[in-house]
Amino acid sequence: MNNATIIAVDAMGGDFGPSVVVPGAIEAARDKGIALLLVGDQAKVQAELAKIPLDGVAYDVVHASEVAGMDEKPSDILRRRKDASIQVACRLVRDGQAHGIVSAGHSGATVACGMFIMGRIPGVDRPALASIMPTEKNPIVLLDVGANVDCKPHHLFQFGLMADAFARDLLACESPRIGLLSIGEEEGKGNTQVKEAYELFKLAQNGINFVGNVEGRDIFSGEVDVVVCDGFVGNVALKLSEGLSTSLGRVLKRELLSGLLPKIGTLLAKSAFRRFAQFVDYAEYGGAPLLGLQGIAFVCHGKSNSKAVRSAVKLAATFVEKKTNERLVKAISANEELTRYGKAIK
């Protein structure tokens, strides 16, 4: 595969497995000119490959005899399912055969395998899941959205440093505005965790553009580029926004089809509604990167379709090509003393 960017894809992951993962990954490889390692049951993967055009795509199939069950504990998957597709994919990165992985399978297993097989970047205590969220202006990064439900202040500080590097390269922000999610904008608002993290951000080096506290209502205004919180709060915020957009879409559809005049108006505004649907579609970005690993791991929604998989694979390739991990390492190293100071706070 020469010197191409190589992404290992967990072909067995997600609710639909190879039937959507394989075609989505192949489309991404064709679009980006990258190479793929499709990891999973060889017979099932080959059966899906036979259904689609493969001209101009560099790929290989890596057999894995097991699949991480959604009802299994991540620790059990690590110990007992050595040939699970997600484990095999992570070992490919660890061994230098791939630059990153994409999986729509068991998110907990992906996080665990990423940490214990691929390994963490030196200085990173807790890798964090970063979700790209639509706003009134430009997309923003929200993290952590579920990898770490119990966090110390210095963990939040590290999340912000990692998100800064991600936003610069993947969202093209020259100086990402970083906000700390709290119950009020004023300095001093929030719990002990947030207050202490605030102090660390104020002292950050390496050009970190910390703008202070932000409230939940500010997430979608587009006034910041990064919103930092612990994984418990972030996951609630993410699921709340997903549920709200789905419900709003249903209500809007019901109201627009309730009579003749609304139906006529709907037809006239069809292109606007199409753009709105695209705006709230999670498949536009594909998945959440797990920042802080040696290599990149993208965790996709279990219900991901081919479009979502394609988007995630393309983003993972961009992450590799931009050498975002190198920027992330520099930011962590430049603030090593602050992280040590944060650990010392009781």
From TrEMBL:
Keywords recorded for this protein, A-Z: Acyltransferase, Cytoplasm, Lipid biosynthesis, Lipid metabolism, Phospholipid biosynthesis, Phospholipid metabolism, Transferase
InterPro entries: FA_synthesis (IPR003664), Phospholipid_synth_PlsX-like (IPR012281)
Pfam families from the UniProt entry: FA_synthesis
Transmembrane segments: none
Catalytic activity reported: a fatty acyl-[ACP] + phosphate = an acyl phosphate + holo-[ACP]
Any GO MF annotation of the entry: phosphate:acyl-[acyl carrier protein] acyltransferase activity
EC class name: transferase
EC nos: 2.3.1.274
The keyword rRNA processing belongs to this UniProt entry's keyword annotation: no
Pathway: Lipid metabolism; phospholipid metabolism
Assembly notes: Homodimer. Probably interacts with PlsY.
Family in the record: Belongs to the PlsX family.
NCBIfam families: plsX
Known role: Catalyzes the reversible formation of acyl-phosphate (acyl-PO(4)) from acyl-[acyl-carrier-protein] (acyl-ACP). This enzyme utilizes acyl-ACP as fatty acyl donor, but not acyl-CoA.
Protein name stated in the entry: Phosphate acyltransferase
